[in-house]
Amino acid sequence: MVNKNKTESISEGTENHSKEVPNFNPAIGISSSIKDIDQCLHTLEESFLYDIEIPGVWLDTPGILDKIEESKLNIVGVTNLIESSVSASIADYNKTIQQGFIEKLILLMNRLEGLYIDRFSIETGFETIFKDPNKVAKRVTLLKNIAPYLYRKNIEMVIPVRIPGISEIPRGKYASFLRGSMCSNIKLALNIHPHETLKIGDPYKLLEEFRFFIKTVSFVYEPETGNTLVKKLIDPWFEALAKLDYEGDIIFHPRVSNLGSLIKSVENFTNFL
Predict the structure, then answer these.
(1) Alpha carbon distance, N-terminus to C-terminus of the chain
(2) Type and span of the H or E element at 233
(3) Can you say how many angstroms the Cα of residue 163 is from the centroid of all Cα atoms in its chain?
(4) Which helix (H) or strand (E) holds 252?
(5) pLDDT one-digit tens code per residue, 57-74
(6) 273 to 8, 23, 48: CA distances (angstroms)
């Protein structure tokens, strides 16, 4: 999507922040569960959050992309370009099935290229199989087979990393995994769940191992269950990212299904950004 009304980046010099913050571009992640999409887009268009990350299913939902094109909104990325239930295990199937997956991925990348979208995410299932060298090797091979098409189309693929993770992955495992792909267009999307991170220690030490592989950082939370994003939860991560000299998209991803929750979330962002 052509970059329209690019949201101004927020840097260390902003008046709203007394603490160190990274120089970043704020964006909002939209859940596939959101209802009343027309009003959702209108709400975002009236806010300062013009940059959006959309779910992959929207690519096949009639009319949505046309409405976004007619608006001030700018798509900066697509999450789950292919359903996670498929992409997370595709490396464990035979070469014929994997080739079909790659061909589908190429067709979808062609669409992204036509829309001027240069980033998408794909689940690899790494977090559940990292202890199995054979399954890790299969996923590395799959990434290597995808890599040439990423280069040709100048598109980046990001692999989601949940923080905190559902399992404790030894330090350096993700770095080794990405290096195995030998593709600089494959990076990480850190999905931070701030309400679950209060007891995991220093954010800087946790993020440091990812510093050369981070493409995006998302703050994921569920306002409809009572989780509110507040500065005291975000500031330690901002400070850590600033120390890492991170410059890129920071995506606020409220997992909401109704418009009222989205409106409250957008209003909340304006209070601390």
Answers:
(1) 25
(2) helix 231-243
(3) 12
(4) strand 247-254
(5) 999 999 999 999 999 999
(6) 11, 12, 10
Q: Is the pTM of this model over 0.70?
A: yes
**What are the extents of the domains in the chain?**
23-272
Quickly list DSSP for 28-50.
EE--TT---HHHHHHHHHHSS--
Question: DSSP letter at 225?
Answer: G
Q: Give the model's confidence band at 16: pLDDT under 50 very low, under 70 low, under 90 confident, else very high.
A: very low
Rg (CA), the chain: 18
Question: DSSP states of 96-112 as a string?
Answer: HHHHHHHHHHHHHHHHH
Distances (CA, A) of 163 to 178, 194, 210, 264: 18, 8, 12, 24
List C-alpha distances in Å: 140 to 77, 186, 213, 233.
Answer: 23, 11, 16, 35
What is the β-pairing status of strands 23-29 and 247-254?
A: parallel
Q: Report the C-alpha dihedral over residues 113, 154, 50, 62, rounded to 10 degrees.
A: 20
Q: For the segment 174-197, what is each residue's pLDDT rounded down to a tens digit? A: 999 999 999 999 999 999 999 998
Cα–Cα distance for residue pair 32/102, rounded to 1 Å: 23
Domain covering 23-272 assigned CATH 3.40.50.1010 in the classification: no
Q: Is 19 exposed, middle or buried (0-12, 13-18, 19+ CB in 10 A)?
A: exposed
Tokens of 143: 């990434």
